[in-house]
Write a structure and sequence with these properties.
Layout lengths: L8 H24 L3 H14 L4 H58 L9 E9 L7 E4 L12 E3 L4 E8 L4 E5 L6 E7 L3 E6 L7 E3 L12 E4 L11 E7 L5 E5 L8 E5 L42 H5 L1
Antiparallel strand pairs: 1-2, 1-12, 2-5, 3-4, 3-12, 4-5, 6-7, 6-9, 7-8, 9-10, 10-11
Length: 313
Amino acid sequence: MAARGPDYITPLRRVLIALLALVLLTMFLFWRIDSPRAERARVALIDRFVPSFEWALVPVTRLSQMVAGFQSYSRLYEQNQELRRELQRMTAWKEAAVQLEQENAKLLAQNNVRIDPALTSVTGMVTVDSGTAFRQSLLLNVGARDGIVDGWATMDGLGLVGRISGVGERTSRVLLLTDPSSRVPVTIQPSGQHALLSGDNTPRPVLDFIEGPENVRPGDRVVTSGDGGVFPPGLLVGQVAQGADRRMRLSMAADYGRLEFLRVVRSQPGEVLPDNGSLITQGVVPSAPEQDIDLMPGFNGASPAAPADAADD
């Protein structure tokens, strides 16, 4: 068996590891020294050696760019798929809206419905949002000079927002449906149940005093009923939703997060009839008084008197 020579690699490896550890420790201590001279030396060292190592950073830079591009591509792909699904849903809603519009026009033509010409609107811009923890209101830049009257309904492009509660010369205040003092009579469709929409300082007002709660389902359409003359009937308010407290609430149709322009709906009060009797006097023949009625002989319940000649015979 051949004799093995002396091992020079193991001691050399140990010496190199010790030198490397010493150099790293020295660099660490040098980098931790808080001194202007040491700072200048560090800056000079970085300027001297770091630019020459740009070739070593190229793979890392390219790899990071590839990862960022792949992540961006993944996000674009997900957004594209989401937009495709939204487009399909919007197409379905468009078809449903066109069918409903055609059906509505057909029903209006068949029933010869006359739309109230006085139900016009004045558009104003929201100037100040003065909502607080105890009052939910807005200010519009239209007022008495524009013909605004206290109590008129205000709507955005989708649904009812509130009512005019204070009119100035150039501005008017809108009391929102979410205000605790707001009470609006509504009708729940298609069941036709009447209810009272009460604001409670939350984004979803409460539906109180529902006539038949068992006939109301989440998603039912809610419109103004016109009871009490507060609002015109048929204005869209929102949909029924069940809150976390198991109470029936309203999901507002109006976008309260982006109230920039509002329409003030002109609504004139209904005609007041002074006497109900005036409705039935026309076209009805008045009955004659009893004393003026001359009953025919023989029809008053008594037998007519016999002629004298017949009695003698």
